[in-house]
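Hello Y.,

Per our agreement to keep a running log of every chain we model this quarter, I'm adding this entry. I've kept the format consistent with earlier entries: sequence first, then predicted structure.
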Amino acid sequence: MFIAKNFLEKKLRKHSAAHFRFVGLMCLLPAACFLLAPQNALGQMASSYARPAAAVDFDQTIGMPPYVFRTYQFAAAPPGKIRVEIFIGMVNDILQFVKISADSSDETQYRAQYEVNIIIWDKQKNPVDSRNWKRELLVKSFDATNDRKKLNLEHAAFDLPPGEYEVALEITDRDTGKNLRERRPLKLTAPEEKQLQLSSIVFTNPAPPTIAAPRDSLLRHFAAITMNLPVIPRPQNEANASNARDLVGAAAYFEIYGATAGEKLQLHCQLLDWRRQVQEEWKETLQVTETPVRHVVDFAGKIKQAGLHTFNLTVQHDAEAKQKDVAAEGSFQVQINAEQNYPAVASENKTLPYEPLRYIVKGAEYKRLVETSDAARDSLIAAFWRQRDPDPAAAGNQLQEEFYRRVAFADKRFAAANADKSGWESDRGRIYIKYGPPREVHHQFAEQGAAPYEIWLYPDLDLSFIFRDKAGSGDFELVNR
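Predicted structure for the entry above:
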């Protein structure tokens, strides 16, 4: 992170609105006594808060990466040059926002100001080209300043001859003077005459069946390395439909150079997981109607799990194959959007009211709860929560509502596509239900050959948990037992 928000304001907000949810239910609920325990510190603490913080706040912390810097190469209009498209993305949470009043009213707004400077250096360390611009962002609420779901995109383009370069990026916060600096090598190779060549692969939203828009318009759908995709249940007549999930919404855009109008090209496509094991493989035949070829491969129905994916593409001529094949690949991250209608989710599964209680009720008392009749179980559950109501005079039970909000959130958010268990039964689901959303989440998910992991930090409880996706299935196992 290179720009920190006002620490005091953020700290006060987190203490007043979120402290309740960070206090672990396991620390507060008695584990050995199911019905007879008196109301304890749990009730006193819960009654001092008007409402528990919504679990969606945690989903913000595991959304888009805080900062993205990507370069793409395409053929340029000037002969002998290559078009370099540079995209930068930043979430609001790493920017410094200052509270201001709107000019025409007393409405409060928050403003962030930053400056972007990009310089292209050649191999001899001479500046070749540069771009500089300033940006101002306005949001209407403090919550929006903490948003981690939407990338604020910046874009610059350069036409450069083949060669070796270095891209120097500097983003400066205009209120604090703090900045981010990054330098990356850039190698541009001249195309071989009359040979097929591929542009960079850009992961984007699916395009219409006919691509009438120019390339720059398509690139406005830039999705960086992360795509948040909805969970789409398979039809009920399919086997194991209740546990199966398809993820849709992603696509890969690329351009092919060196083809001839009228010929056919064969596309060999693979989707690999983080271990570089093939998850999906298929072929497409592409009729060349115009050059250069602009094409989108839709991944609908082909991505069936969260995590790191690599799209590997090989293109070859359909006819006698004396010319070389050409290949390219790119990686992207898939995350599953959580269903936010928690009460509706809970009502769909009749076991949710009692099975997750095993995390906070142990031994004979939980066994009694499982083995009793449905009617008796409902009575026991009602008595359990009634004796732990932090504010009996208020409508509803704040603690009970928070518990089942966590269960329903975990059931949707941590369900692995190919796992034989619900999301609340996973290790992340268990920790989330016990302790609530972590204060901080650190994760690695964009390195081939390295198992993705997440680190959850609970500084208020002096706890931390490390989860690793050993199998690449999206099921993160707790590894620091």
